[in-house]
Amino acid sequence: MSTINKQIHLVSRPDGEALADNFKLVDATVGEPQDGQVLVRNHFLSLDPYMRGRMNDAKSYAKPQPLGEVMQGGTAGVVVASKHPGYKPGDTVVGFGGWQQFTMVDAATPGTMRKVDTAHIPLSAYLGAVGMPGVTAWYGLMKICQPKAGQTIVVSAASGAVGSVVGQLAKTRGCRAVGIAGGADKCAYVTGELGFDACVDYKAHRDPKSLYQALKEATPDGVDGCFENVGGAVLDVTLSRMNAFGRIALCGMISGYDGQPIPLAQPQLLLQSRLTLEGFIVSEHMEVWPEALKELGTLVATGKLKYRETVAQGIESAPEAFLGLLKGKNFGKQLVKLV
Amino acid sequence: MSTINKQIHLVSRPDGEALADNFKLVDATVGEPQDGQVLVRNHFLSLDPYMRGRMNDAKSYAKPQPLGEVMQGGTAGVVVASKHPGYKPGDTVVGFGGWQQFTMVDAATPGTMRKVDTAHIPLSAYLGAVGMPGVTAWYGLMKICQPKAGQTIVVSAASGAVGSVVGQLAKTRGCRAVGIAGGADKCAYVTGELGFDACVDYKAHRDPKSLYQALKEATPDGVDGCFENVGGAVLDVTLSRMNAFGRIALCGMISGYDGQPIPLAQPQLLLQSRLTLEGFIVSEHMEVWPEALKELGTLVATGKLKYRETVAQGIESAPEAFLGLLKGKNFGKQLVKLV
Q: Which of A157, B102, B121, B157 could cross-link to B229 by cystine, CB 3.0-4.6 Å?
């Protein structure tokens, strides 16, 4: 028996902005699992900004996404058939199944998949607050920013899957949490629902001086920790507000993902304020995942860590949803629901 | 009895480039020490790039140099009169006596002055390789770059008081030491006398691509540690050569000290290569001074750490010598000899 398996392939690389034409919908099939294999039906695809970097054929931290193959990415789903003793049909799992309806997983390979408990945590949350984005927030904040009670933490893309966790975690450590987000609705959510102390709408402050003034008002005691997802003008103004010995977790620079120049205007501030900056990728810090997931899972299960999802429907919608994510059209974690 | 004491005061702040007019020679006098005081005749003034930042009235790590007062700075000299039991005439001392011939020191204040042994180490070296510049090199290299045998360390302003120590220390740790300096004579000195493995003459590569190509040839295995004194194009190309998990000690950015914009062209490299960058000031890390000075003193006394000095003669020459230092006219440590 073989099952139709719709997939999205990357068929060309962007020249500047990523476009729908870079992707192609392909009808494939999946058969029965062989010994050691598990067939998973993907219920959710995770769409994440880092994928944009992998669409380029450039030297970067991740290998480029190969052309003519299924777009790689995180997935959450349910086992439909198994020839591995550790898994049985009905098990809920999280893995790296890619942009397709079904994934045949070699379950014996360590790290390819793990079972998750959906009694207290929704399956989709394992792609967000209790998954890679949540651990990214946890690592950058706890290990790089090293927040102390009373300090001010600023996070850009504050309503997103990573940023929303950064600010809420900072609040649990007794910090002032200040977000930067695009649009009044996102900012209202960040302060109203997520409990940040303030949020600056960068779309309302297109010139750097105005943006600086708005951030200054939101950070009367300066900034001790910066969790950066955006880069460009947003990072420039945050640097200008940083206190001596401030710490910067450099997680993403989405403002430059299409190849735009995003120079740092005043790198001398790194010296003058004796700042520490660290670029990181969470998959290179697997040692923190158990501790981070334990805290994040408990916070979500007890309703203390809130998150929001934007859910596109059907595998066909993945490319447009991803392109929207790159433009900030999503609100919270961007998912594609397949089932 | 009072003694004539020629001093250099800062009388105005630079608007852009620092100029001789910003300084003024003043004839003052010094009297006899009171209880607890020590009168020191300064034999050498230390001229250092950080002084340029203090000439501005801007928010920076150091308080601005006050107008109408003696330029502050490190000095090495000899006690001529003492009313403190710890010092007697003839003692050789290092302190922060400023641009003047004599300094009356309140010797009871901790950290104002220390006695030094000139049996095996020349007095002037305590202002260079065995003083603040040497400890700066030691701290940034050992504590921030954290060199490991086989790694490549790049240091800019490589023939200077700090850079020359960075590269030689890196060699003692089994690293490949690569300098960046301005001019063929400085580069020849860096490789020939100081023992660096390579040195790139930035003046011979005015366009960034050419400079990048030259650094690439000098760093065939990439760069693991960067000790930055210059900023601007020099930092840009070094960033482009950095290996994953590379470390950057940000010590100075002399290319921007007159207020020129010195944007960092590609800050995304900090993320892509997962770099750690730390801005630092050595005076905020007093805990390392004993260990650093012990190693540096031993290396100088045994001839294993070489250095070069440019010595201007007489207090009147201090302003011009300092302005020359800012333009790279000095070769090695810039001093003013007063006696």
A: B157
Tell me which architecture the domain covering A3-127+308-337 has in CATH.
Alpha-Beta Complex (3.90)
Q: Tokens 């206190």 sit at which residue?
A: A243
Contact between B268 and A274 using a beta-carbon 8 Å cutoff: no
With the CA atoms of A158, A172, A93 and A48 taken in that order, what torsion angle do they form, in degrees rounded to the nearest 10? 20
Contacting residues of B for A250, CB less than 8 Å apart: 270-271
List the one residue out of A300, A299, A331, A338 whose CA is nearest residue A317: A338
Our CA-based measurement puts residue A18 at a distance from the nearest CA of chain B, in whole angstroms, of: 18
Architecture of domain A132-283: 3-Layer(aba) Sandwich (3.40)
How far apart (Å, rounded) are the C-alpha atoms in residues A332 and A308?
5
Instruction: Provide the phi-psi class of B10: left if phi over 0, else alpha when psi is between -120 and 50, else beta.
Output: beta
Chain B: residue whose CA lies nearest to A232 = B267
Phi, psi of B37 (to 5 degrees): -100, 155
Beta bridge partners of A311: A335
Q: What is the ipTM of this complex?
A: 0.93
Overall pTM > 0.90:
yes
Is the CB of residue B177 less than 8 Å from the CB of residue B153? yes
Tokens read off for A66: 């190969």
> Which chain B residues touch A262 with a CB distance below 8 Å?
267-268
Q: Which residue of A has its CA nearest to B61?
A: A272
CA distance A235 to A113: 36
Residue B184 to residue B186: CA distance in whole angstroms: 6
User: Where do runs of H (alpha helix) occur along A140-183?
Assistant: 163-172
Q: Does B265 touch chain A (CB under 8 A)?
A: yes
At A292, list the tokens.
């981070």
Q: What angle do CA A45, A51, A54 make, to 5 degrees?
A: 140
pLDDT, tens digit, 9 for 90 and up, residues A263-310: 999 999 999 999 999 999 999 999 999 999 999 999 999 999 999 999
CA atoms within 13 A on the CB side of B30: 20
Give the residue from B238, B247, B270 with the most A CB atoms within 10 Å of its CB, the best one to mutate.
B270
Contact with chain B for residue A62, Cβ under 8 A: no
> Where are chain B's structural domains?
3-127+307-337, 132-283
The CA distances from residue A119 to A52, A116, A127, B46, B223, in Å, are 33, 9, 16, 69, 49
Rounded Cα–Cα distance for residues B302 and A150 (Å): 50
Instruction: Tell me which of B250, B283, B285 to substitute to probe the interface with A (most A C-beta atoms closer than 10 Å).
Output: B250
pLDDT digits (tens, 9 = 90+) for A194-241: 999 999 999 999 999 999 999 999 999 999 999 999 999 999 999 999
Cβ-based neighbour number of residue A271 at 10 Å: 23
Supply the CATH classification number for the domain B3-127+307-337: 3.90.180.10
Q: How confident is the model at residue B188 (pLDDT cuts 50, 70, 90)?
A: very high
A277–B273: do the CB atoms touch at under 8 Å? Answer: no
Write down how long chain A is. 339
Count of alpha carbons within 13 Å of A215, Cβ hemisphere only? 31
CB contact under 8 A, A280 and B274: yes
**Tally of helices (H runs) and strands (E runs) in chain A:** 9, 16
Tell me which residue in B268, B274, B279 faces A271 most closely, judged by beta carbons.
Answer: B279
Q: Tell me: the pLDDT tens digits for B245-266?
A: 999 999 999 988 888 899 999 9
